[in-house]
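This part of the workshop introduces the protein records we will be handling. A record pairs a protein's sequence with a compact description of its fold. Backbone structure tokens are a discrete shorthand for how the chain folds in space. The question running through the whole workshop is how a given chain folds. The record below serves as our worked example for the rest of this section.
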Amino acid sequence: MNEDKHQEALAQWLDLRGLRWFHPPNGGQRNRIVAGKLKAQGVKAGVPDVIITTPVPNRPEVRGVALELKTEKGRLSSSQRQWLDGLEADGWVCLVGYGWRDAVEQVEKVGL
């Protein structure tokens, strides 16, 4: 299963769970003109794949949940690690899911 299919499965689960979330469309192949426009508009490398804004029950100090989704054998890039570390320092819960099932387990452990 490639990362796109894991993202689709996770998206279905998040929607069924009724969570408020979004997926920044940072990935994918783009021509140079479109890539330049997106960069000028603020697209940043390494932004997590899933941003969950639904409040975490019994944890009012948590600002949000950021999840980077990888395949079972995937690895974080340095820009992805920097984003997760920065968000965590700002009060976010940051997760890395290795496959959609692992991502679901981690989101459930947070309490969502």
Notes: The helical segments are 3-17, 32-40, 78-89, 100-110. The two ends are 25 Å apart (CA to CA). DSSP finds four helices and four strands in the chain.
